[in-house]
Amino acid sequence: MNILIIAAEVGFLIFAFSLLSWLAGIAFKTVAVSWLKRRAESVATPLQNVRLFLLLACVGLCFLIIIVNGVLVYQGKSVWKFQLNLIRSIPTQFWLTLATASIKSVSLLLLVKLSLPLLYRLLDWGCNFAKNYDRITTNNESIEAFFTYLKRLLRNCIWILAGILCLQFFQVPEVIPTYLFIALKSFIAIAIGRLLIKSLSVLVDTLDALSTRYSSPDNLLRHYER
Length: 226
Fold this sequence. Notes:
Blueprint: H1 2-34, H2 44-74, H3 79-89, H4 92-133, H5 140-169, H6 175-214
Helix pairs in contact: 1-2, 4-5, 5-6
């Protein structure tokens, strides 16, 4: 029985750290695609470092569990009773807070997951409307690039914000969400700058097409290069 409990604890620990490693990979890949599109390889080293840290932490905790439980078995004590007493020593408020935070986090993440497709459809409708509004086809590519980037920006910001709110649900030290909010604001500021550049590209393409349609053949806007 003791061996099964030890194996279950080690297995759960390995599963938890594997899940964290997988989530870290998704987070780093999201940043690489959205923020460092041209330098995606630059996040490979930090990701490897994070995964190495998680691996070492997992191995260390597994050894700690095995050693502590091994000592209990050697002393003839029940591992199950020791774990129950350890759990009972934790205040009830902690478990209530943990359960409430877990429910809130799952609900929020599900809400984000279900809401994003609706947002995508709205942006796709806006993209099609913008392309068909002026009956100009030469700016379609820049309009699509603008809405594609806007879609990616909103998706990343919403997920990052949801993650920060989940941390607040679990009542982590206030300094962590504060710095994450600062990082999110910086990310949004940079992204808005890139979004403005893409909107200028749409404007230039539109003006170029209008100049071709309504102006004389030697209009300078026809030869304007972005």
